[in-house]
Amino acid sequence: MFGYVRPRTDVLSSEEMDAYRAAYCGLCRALGKQYGFRARFLVNYDMTFLYLLRSGVRDRAEAKRCWCPARGCGKKVCTLDQVGFETVAARTVILCVEKLRDNLRDESFFRSLPDRFLRLLFRRAYKKAARRLPSFAALTAEQLGKLRALEQAHSPSIDATADAFARIVAGCAADVEEPALRRPMEQVLYQTGRFLYLADALDDLRDDCQNGVYNPLRFRFTPQNGELSAQELDYLTQLTDSSVNLAGAALALLPLRAYDRLLENTVYLGFPAVFAAVRAYKFRAKAGLPGIGRRSAKGGNTPKGETE
Amino acid sequence: MKDPYEVLGVSRTASDNEIKAAYRELVKKYHPDNYANNPLADLASEKVKEINEAYDAITRSRAGQGSAYNGGYQPGGSYQSSGSYQSGGYKSYQTSSNAAYSQVRSYLNANQLDAAESLLNTASNRDAEWYYLKGMIAYRRGWLDEARQHYQTACAMVPGNYEYQNALRSVQGGYTPYRQTNYQRSDMDTACDICNALMCLNCLCGGCGR
Predict the structure, then answer these.
(1) N or C terminus of chain B with fewer C-beta within 10 Å?
(2) Is this complex's ipTM strictly greater than 0.90?
(3) For residue B44, what is the nearest residue in chain A, using CA coordinates?
(4) What's the rounded Cα separation, in Å, for the pair A163 and A152?
(5) Do residue A238 and residue B40 have CB atoms under 8 angstroms apart?
(6) CATH topology classification for A9-302
(7) Domain ranges of chain A
C-alpha cells in the first residue's frame, strides 16, 4: 500500500534476505492464485510484514521455486503457505480497494479516472475478499469513514486521525483467538499503522500544502512553505520512536518461531531508517538511505533486486 | 508446564553459565522498565514468572533433589524470590491522597481505560496529577502526542516529580534498555568513536613517552 514498512536490507544476513524475498513472492503468488493475475500488482512490503508477523508464531513454511511473471520464463523461490497467505491476501485486496474508493472521494471526476479504472479492475477480487473477511471489510470501511469525517473537520489531532487508520491495521490480528498472541500482535500492528500514517503524512506534506489538501501535520504544526521546522520534525521523530519502542516491546512478547530477526529488524531499524529518509525528502525522491530500498516508478515497492 | 529449556531458549546440553546468561538476558528483555505503563505489562509479568519457574526447575534438576539453588543464584537472589517484578515492578503506581485518583489508578491497573477517563473527567480540580493520569490514559491508548502534552503540563506544574518525569521520558522516544543493547546502531558508532579516541590517546601518550 505505502511501502514504509520494510527491513534494513543492508544488515540482513543472506538467509534472512532470502526468507524475506520468498515471503514477498509467496504473497504475490497467493494473490494471483486466489484473486486472479491482476491482483499480483497489489503485493507490497507492508502486507509482507503482516504475513511475517502472523506466521512468525508458527514454524516456517516450506519454500520452493515457482514461476514468476515478472521474469517471463524464470522462476523464483516462494514461500508456500496456503493457510497463512489466505487471510493476508484477502486483507491486501480489501485495504487496497478501500483506499482506492477513499481516494475517489477526494478528487474531481477526471483526475479520479485512473483510480476509478483500477477499482473497476479489482471489483470482483474485492467482492471475493469481502465475502472471505466480512468483519474486516466492515471495519475498514467504518474507520476510513471516521478518518474522512476528521479530515473534513480539519482535525488538528494527529492522534485521532492516526488512530482511525491504526485501528484498521490492528484489525488484521482481530481473528487471532488466543489473547496472549492477539494482544501483542494488535499492539505491534496498531503502532505500525500509526507509524505508516505519520510517515505518509510527512511524505505528502509539501504537496498537500501546495494543493490545499488536508494533512493533519498542517493543522497540528505550523509548516512554512510545506516544511516543518527542525524542532517540529524532532518532535515527530520522537513520537515515531516511541511507537517503535511500544511495537518492539509487544513483539518481544510473542513466542516467535520464525522470522524473528526480520521482524525485529523491520521495527527497530527499518522504521527509523524509513522515517529518516522521509524526513530528509529522500524516500520519495528514489534516493533512499542505504538498505531501505527504493520506490518503483509506479508507486509499488520492490525488495532489492526484485521485480514486480 | 512448558519445557524449561525451551522457555530459556537453550539446549539441554548447555552449561550452567550459558543457562545463567540466557536467563539474565531474558529477564533484562522483560524488565519492568521496558513495560512501564504498557497495556501489555501483565503479559510481561507472566513471562517473567514463566522464566523464573523455568530457571528454578533447571537449577533444581541439575542440583539433584537437594537444595533449589546450587549454582550462581541463591534463594532470594533470583528475580522471582525477590518479588521485584511481580508486585513492585509492572504496576507500581504510587498511591494518591485523592480518592478519585486512587480509583483512576485502579482502573488503569485493570486496563479499564474508558472507566478511568470518565471518572477523571468528573474531577473539578485539574492539578498536576490530573494531567499525569490523563497522559497515562492517552499513552495506554497509543495516543502519544496527547500523552506527551499532558505529561509536559504535569511536569511544568510540579517540576521535581520523578514519576511524571519518567512518564514524559517514555514519550520522548528514548531507547529502552533492550533496544539499546540490541538495535541501537548509533551507540555502536559512539562506542567505536570512544575506542578510536582511546587508541589515538594511547598513540599520543606513547609518542610523548620515552
Answers:
(1) C
(2) no
(3) A253
(4) 16
(5) no
(6) Farnesyl Diphosphate Synthase (1.10.600)
(7) 9-302
**Element housing B16 (H / E):** helix B16-29
Cβ(A1)–Cβ(A47) below 8 Å: yes
* DSSP conformation class of A89: H
Q: Which residues of B touch A160 (CB under 8 A)?
A: 143
The Cβ of residue B100 has, within 10 Å, a number of other Cβ atoms equal to: 15
Q: Give, for all 308 residues of chain A, the pLDDT tens digit.
A: 678 999 998 999 999 999 999 999 999 999 999 999 999 999 999 999 999 999 999 999 999 998 888 877 788 899 999 889 999 999 999 999 888 887 776 666 666 777 777 777 788 999 999 999 999 999 999 999 999 999 999 999 999 999 999 999 999 999 999 999 999 999 999 999 999 999 999 999 999 999 888 999 999 999 998 899 999 999 999 999 999 999 999 999 999 999 999 999 999 999 999 999 999 988 875 544 445 554 433 333 444 444 33
- On whether the CB atoms of residues A59 and A258 are closer than 8 A, the answer is yes
Strand A294-295 to A301-302 pairing: antiparallel
Residues B56, A229: Cα–Cα separation, whole Å: 54
Does the distance separating the beta carbons of A248 and B178 come in below 8 Å? yes
Binary contact (B171, A268; C-beta < 8 A): no
